[in-house]
Amino acid sequence: MINQSNTLFVFISSVLVFFMTPGLAFFYGGMVSKKNAVNTMISVFMITGLAIVLFIAFGYNLAFGKDVGGVFGLSKSFFLNGFDLKRIYSKDTGITLLTYLMFQMMFSIITPALFVGATVGRMKFKFLLVFVVIWSILIYYPMVHMVWTPNGILAKTGMLDFAGGTVIHVNAGITALFLSIFVGPRIDFNPEDEVKHYNLAWVLMGTSILWIGWYGFNVGSALTVSDIATQAFLTTTVATGTSFVVWMFLDIFIQEKTNMIGLCTGALCGLVGITPVAGAFAIGFICTLASYIFIHVIKPKLKLDDPLDAFGCHGVSGIMGSVLTGLFATKIVNPQVENGLFYGGGSHLLIVQVGGTLLTIIFVGIMTTIIVLSLQKVIPIRVSKEEELIGLDLAEHGEQADYGMEFEKTEL
Question: Strand, helix or coil at 68?
Answer without folding.
Answer: strand
